[in-house]
Amino acid sequence: MSARETRGRFGLLVLAALFIVAVVIANAALRGIRLDLTENRLYTLSEGTYAILEDIPETINLYFFFSERATADIPQLRTYAGRVREMLEEFEQNADGRLAVRFIDPLPFSDEEDRASEFGLQSVELGMGADPVFMGIAGTNSIGDEEIIAFLDPTNEAFLEYELAKLVHTLAVVSKPVIGLLTPLQMTAGFDPATQQLRQPWVITQQVQQLFELRTLPAGTDSIDADIDVLMIVHPKDLGDSTLYAIDQFIMRGGRAMLFVDPYAQADSQPPPVPGMSQPGGGASDLNRLLEPWGVSIPPGIVIGDDRFALQVTGLGNRPVRYLPLLGIDQTGIDPDDVVTAGIRNLNLGFPGYIEVGEDPSVTVTPLVRSSDMAGPLQAEELAFTQDPEMLRASFEPTGEPYVLAARLQGVAPSAFPDGPPPLPETGTTVDSGAHLAQSDGPINVLLVADTDLLTDRLWVQVRNLFGQPLTTAFAGNGDFTVNALDNLTGSNELISIRGRATYTRPFTRVQNLRRDAEARFRITEQQLTQELNSLEAKLAELQAQRQDGGNLLLSPEQEAELDRFQDERLRIRKELRQVQRDLDQSIEDLGMQLKITNIFLVPALIALLGLALLVLRRQRRA
């Protein structure tokens, strides 16, 4: 062996040793450092999530129950389960040892399956003799509290980080959130002097009491306890300056609020303005004294009617008619990207107002619920005198613009009392509420809804008596909207800051566009066929009416010729329909072939060309 070969082999051994040393040093020095190169930053948590994980006081245990064996042939669930596992690992890594995550496969008839059922996790039956599938998370803290996500729905992937952060935050904060309710409406249980019977609470009140500590505030209150997490104000009417000031300062100090203001609330029914009228008027509420300094308001006396979202009612003569100010908002009018409204299919509103935003508001206004572009304003005072819903349609003129019916307000806001607390009317002295704030101490978080009737039972839930027990069946998402909003507002500012993010799965948008265009052409051709059929039937009926032979079943020569012509046209159009479908399939196949050629041949060819170029460059340098 020559000295040159010996030096070469020795050099290779030195390089190998240096490589091993570099890997060991890198593993030690770069431990925990990760680089997220995904387009949508799938593995980078929100700043709010980091803050929640840092504030965990004691160890929290999370158990991810996923049926690995039962989903061996279900790639969709396995892919999403992998996404959940990766995010849980990201949570655990950033919790500094205060979050312990375990992954459990609850096999049938095992202790793990019994434990999942004890936690209250839901299994999905796939049928055909397959084992039930679990895909849920249970969490416990040091004092024995339990929280669960019964089943992780893959369609709700955009809010996976929020749901996990909310679960951790709930276990970290052991006290039950307090909701302060201020309303003149009879939403809670009590004694009704008119009927001399006990009054049942509204269903929405019962749901809130199950999830939160509900504290009713007295009318005319001039102070709000500091331990109230969210202030829920429903139909604020005739509030004094001391009460308005207490609400203002509560929000200025960082308190969250959900405000329901209504220019025409049927829940606050008044006696009929004219004897004999069947439809009573509705009371009005106003909170613009606090809202206008923020750059928003709810115009008094204006109700929104919508010719697209109008619900059907029984009119005069028991005829079904669509009532313009009674709205059934579908998903086209509901924000799918906010955690409060995501997943809600429909909302029913009764005689809502709208939120008007000024030219330069001091807060950020995020619409959550909108009308359609076939909406327009109605005078609230006219509704009490209009017995026939069809009379509203006769003079109704849509403006062509959608109206904001509910919105989230965030940002630093000025006080409605810049000069300090107002004087008390009895003594002339000012309200003693501590240090006055002329501007909010940080961003405010307020949800504003221009309707109160959506909380009433009649607009979203049916209550039946089953063997002496009330059975409720929801037909609209009003309850989910309210509970979601309160649940979101009771969280920390960090939790509220977490928004929906991009999903793990990415659709084939090019294929979807091709299919959409082809379906549009298909519908046009199908309409032509339908028009041809209608035209033929009309022609045949006209020829039949012109016959002089008593209308027997034999076809006349003209009818036979017309029928033959239609048969030929129908065959031609059906052939065109099949051709459109074939073109669609061929377009998708061509796109798939292009992707295969790119992945199989083009990318390796580019790598090979790059290697050849480097080889040629190296030889040129040696030469």
Sequence-ordered SSE layout with sheet pairings:
Blueprint: H1 3-29, H2 47-54, E1 60-66, H3 75-93, E2 99-104, H4 111-119, E3 123-124, E4 133-140, E5 146-149, H5 160-172, E6 178-182, E7 190-192, E8 197-199, H6 203-211, E9 213-216, E10 230-234, H7 241-252, E11 256-260, E12 265-269, E13 282-283, H8 288-291, E14 296-297, E15 302-306, E16 310-314, E17 320-329, E18 347-350, E19 356-357, E20 364-370, E21 375-379, H9 380-383, H10 389-395, E22 404-411, E23 444-449, E24 461-466, E25 469-474, H11 478-490, H12 493-497, H13 509-546, H14 557-622
Parallel strand pairs: 1-2, 6-9, 6-10, 10-11, 11-23
Antiparallel strand pairs: 1-4, 3-4, 4-5, 7-8, 12-13, 14-19, 15-21, 16-17, 17-18, 20-22, 22-23, 24-25
Helix pairs in contact: 13-14
